[in-house]
Every structure is written in structure tokens, then in C-alpha cells.
Amino acid sequence: MSKGGNQGLSLISDRRIAFRNASLFDSRKGVMRRDATVVVEGGRIAQVVFRQKTKIADARVYDLKGKALLPGLIDCHVHVTAVDYDVLRLSMQPPSLITALAKDVLEGMLLRGFTTVRDAAGADFGLAEAIERRVFKGPRLFISGWPLTQTGGHGDARPKGARSMICTCAGLGLFGAVADGVAEVRRAAREQLRNGANQIKVMAGGGVISPTDPIEGTQYSIDELRAICEEAEAANTYVMAHAYSPRSIERAVRAGVRSIEHGNLLDEKSARTMKECGAYLVPTLATYTVMNDEAVGLNLPASGLEKLAKVRRQGIDAIRIAKAAGVPIAFGTDLLGHMHARQSAEFGLRLPAMTPAEILQSATSVAARLLGQEGKLGVIAPGAAADLLVVAGDPTQSLAPLQTPEKGLLALMKAGRFYKNLL
To answer: Residue 44 pairs with which residues in a beta bridge?
Structure first.
């Protein structure tokens, strides 16, 4: 047995670590499996056995009797460089300051149990490299670069009447790459891929806080959407699309989009289309709840408040509809600035439509499949990354430990290294 725990961050990394007598969450099947022994070596899971007395040589051993072992969590919709909710104010900050402030955002996500996140616009290849080199403590990043937007689309942040956007945050994808026409969108997609994007993001419909577009509207022509998806496919990756309305969802997935972000206004017909096309839904209930709670302080215009009320009211129904249609549902939050602290609220917000086990799967195995990382992330299996969480009790019955991770997480490991260890 190991001696004592390490409060807060711990970077202890033994050559071999073993967890015995664990209740292991099988994220593929959505069930707990008892009496598991898991051996970690070289940043990966080396061995998983059940109900066997395995001899483990030269390893630090932790007895997890009465505790659960989970794969590290995956949030498929974050903005780690959105260190301020006010995007116009953020646009006037230098990239060096934004990156420095992102340090705490990244570390906070990791300590909430998210060992991997998909950044939906903002982070660049340098920030991903900083985490890989352990300059910053944080989850591994799957970056999108700059989101592609049509003129006047959700990613076009210019105020009405402004011909250009003054921005000192050059290099960070906090604002859209404005591109119109098939040739322009191809070039814009290729530019994101050239700069290390793991996937392409496109604005396929209106947004809540953007000033010039209706929430029910569609953006980009079918030919433009297809061209973007063709470029992603040519680079062996995929497209994620911001979309709310049924029409924008159907157009996007028929053009080849792999995941619909938000999707609050989804109906039965568009859900069937998503299922037929093999698309995923990434709901982000947390952002609407937090925005509603803080609407006065956020100074949302009347149009924004109206759009917020509509999407918030229908978000949970969209999850029910997607689930009934068999659409895979991944985990996302979409928080900005100080709101990142409420990332874990998403677990509780989904409970009216999903079981705890289904929510756990959305943040592990389903999310990993969406990212093209099946068998590598989001699962406790030989060869997978040693991203592991330890909590008390049975998380398929209660998600309380994940909703309050500062108390509920007893241990947190990413790539075989403890970042928290109270065992």
C-alpha cells in the first residue's frame, strides 16, 4: 500500500502503478464491473483483470475497495482561451496575456476530471504543445483553429455597421475566419488544417449572442458546406457544426458534418436524419443555465435574451428526442470566462433525459468515438491512455462525486501521472 496522500496537485509518476479491488466503470457497456485490477505503466494501461489474484512486481499498489475507477472525462465543446465572457473586450487583449490567463482555465478543467477536451475555437497548436510538454497542467487538447463563418454569420463578430474588426488577439481563433464561396471556404479549411487543427468547425446557423443572425436561420450554402467537409475528409478528419434549428441541422449532416454542437431546437425529423447520416449531438446545457443565472450582469441585449430563453427551454427536449432516435450524444459545456468554474453542472442538468450511466458514457466512450479515439481514450482497457479517476460509491447510481469534483475526486491521473491523489 502507498503511504499518505498528496493534497492538490501531485506529479508523482512511478514506473508501475496498480489499482486493486476496484469497481471499474465499463464505459462501452455502461456498467460497473467488480473486483478489477488495473496496472499502469509508461503512461498507458498495461493490464486489466477481474476476480484474479494477480501478482504485480515492482509497482506502487492502491487498494480501491469500496471505490470506483473511471476513465478520464472528455468535454467535447470548450473554449479554453475564452478567459473573458465579453468577446469584444477579449479582442483587445494580446495573445500573450490570453495564453497566460488560460493557464488557470486549463488547470481547473483537469482538476474537475477532464483529461481531454475538444476546443471549439480559440486554442492553437502552441497551447496544445505547451500542455503536451507539461509547461501548463491541463487536459490534452483537440483544437479546431478558427471557426469558419460566412459574412454576417455566427462567427462574424463585427458590430452592425463595422466594416472590420479591430483585434489584438491575432493568432487565436476567438473569432471566425470569414469566408464566402466554395473556393474561399476550401482555402479557409485548408488553412486551419495547415495550422494543426484536429477537426474543422463551421457555423451552420444562428447563435444566441451574435448580433446579426436569427437563431432559426441557416448559414452557408450546401455547396460550401460540402466543400468544407470534403477538405476535412481529405485530411482524414471531420467537421463539427454550430447549429440550432432543424433545417440547419439537416443541411449540415447531409453535407457530411459529423457532430452538431448545441442542437437545442432538434425535432424528430432532423433527429432521424442525424441517425441516418451517422452524426453525433453535443448538447451544452450548462452554458444556457449559467447565462440565464447571470443575465443581468452579462448585459445581454433584448434579442439575446429572447434567443437564450428559447434554446434553454428546449435543450433537454432535444436530448430526449436524440436519445429516442438512437443518435449518439457526447458531453459538452461551452462556457466562457468565469463560467468555466461551473463545468461540472452539466452532469446534473442532463439527468431529466439520461441515466447517470448514459451521462458517464457521453463523457467517455461516446466522446472518444466522436474524436476518432476509440480504444485510446474514454475507456479502461489495455493500450488505452492511463487517464483514470477514483471516486467513492457507485457513479452509475449517483453523479454527485463528479458534480462536486473538489470533494468527490479522490484521485486523478492523466497519462499515468497523478495530478491529485488523496488515496
So the answer is: 41, 385
Strand ranges for 146-235 from DSSP E: 148-149, 177-178, 200-203
Q: Name the pLDDT band for 159 (thresholds 50, 70, 90).
A: low
pLDDT of residue 157: 65
Matching residue, cell 468565469: 338
Domain that holds residue 197: 73-370
Residue 166 has pLDDT above 90, yes or no: no
Per-residue pLDDT of 259-273, as tens digits, reads 999 999 999 999 999
CA torsion, ordered 140, 252, 90, 294, to nearest 10 deg: -90
Find the range with the poorest average confidence among 10-14, 51-55, 310-314, 350-354.
10-14
Tell me: do 213 and 91 sit in the same domain: yes
CATH number at residue 396: 2.30.40.10
Comparing 181 with 4, the larger pLDDT belongs to 181
Per the rule left: phi > 0, alpha: psi between -120 and 50, beta: everything else, 374 is: beta
State the chain's mean pLDDT as an integer.
91
Q: 140-142 and 60-63 as β-strands: parallel, antiparallel, unpaired?
A: unpaired
Q: What share of the chain is helix, strand, coil (3-state, %, to 5)?
A: 35, 20, 45
Residue from 64, 73, 111, 30 nearest 393 by CA: 64
Let me know how long the chain is.
Answer: 423
Residues 190 and 60 reside in one and the same domain: no
**DSSP-assigned letters across all residues of 285-318:** HHHHHHHHHTHHHHT--HHHHHHHHHHHHHHHHH
Q: In whole angstroms, give the CA distance from residue 410 to residue 422.
A: 5
9 domain residue, yes or no: no
